[in-house]
Amino acid sequence: MKIILVGIGTAPHLAVSFSNALQQMGHTVRIVDERWAYTPLDRKPLRPIRDALIGSVPSGAGILRWLLLRACRAFQPQLVLATTPRSVDRATLAEIRSIAGCRLATFLSDSPFNPVVSSSAGIEALSGWDLVATPRRASLQRVQRHCEGKVLYLPFAYDPALHFREPPKTVAEVKQYSSDVAFLGGCDLDRVPYLDALASCAEINVNLYGGYYHYTPALQSRSRKPAFGRKYRLALSGTKVAPCLVRKANEDGHVMRTFEVPACNAFLLAERTEEHAELFREDHEAVFFDSPQELVDKTRFYVKNDKARQEIANRGCQLIRGGRNTYADRLAVILQQCFGS
Length: 341
What we know:
With 341 residues, the protein is of the alpha/beta class. The protein has 15 helices and twelve strands. The protein folds into two domains: 2-157 and 326-339, Rossmann fold (3-Layer(aba) Sandwich), CATH 3.40.50; 171-321, 3-Layer(aba) Sandwich (Rossmann fold), CATH 3.40.50.2000. The protein is 42% helix and 16% strand. A six-stranded parallel β-sheet has the order 2-1-3-4-5-6, sandwiched between helices. A six-stranded parallel β-sheet has the order 9-8-7-10-11-12, with helices on both faces. α8 packs across α13 (292-304). The longest helix is centred in the C-terminal third of the chain and has 16 residues, at 306-321. The model has no long low-confidence stretch (mean pLDDT 93).
């Protein structure tokens, strides 16, 4: 099958994991890179100017749409699948149908209702997709109200080529990546109380990999550059505890790290949600917390209890890696929903 993917075309973004999985499944894939939709006007300091001029649509959306239509004419895909559909409007979807007569599907890696990463065009276009898959059960009904095609809840997953245990090897790597706690991701405002509580514990070695850690002195002092690819694996494999916080602005019940942390055989200390409780048995395959203080208390306990921590990490790893939780598994569901068995 010939498939066009719309998304960021560099690892570790989801479009690359999708592309690799689809090619391994025997499909021919082309990526239309979402980065063409973004210009300097879309950078954070200039976004208010952009919004005043053209609204929340990325300033280069027209370029991306032109590239997508050109690719459809040349490639004649059976499926167009978008992981970041913010720049694709309903008119473009209709034109793709007239050009290629293909199926149209999207996996909502971010919430279309999160104002930071959404656009009015993306919300309006929901009604033009044949299939909308969302990893957010909390917003499922809201998505359905905007859609005319199929809508299904489909969780995130892990990429076997990216997410596996890889401990630090050299003396320099051990020094850089060994920690009591490693959190990988941005510091959203609602995450500040949790991460600041950890970062303020002088006896706990905390590494925070990501951006926006400017809110408190404790966060700034523990901040590290974002870690991707092998560095991501080294950070998880070199730590004792890997907290997992959901993104409230996205209405998340789980996130990518929900699968990636245990796939790397790291100890998952996850925010208590219904979706996390469905995926893991508490204190058996993962440990949960409800508050900043509970996060700190359980971190202190498991940092000191190596045997209990590693047993839980091992069971979590076995559960995720043995449970059809790869992106190839998720794509098989999307293809079945689009084309039948």
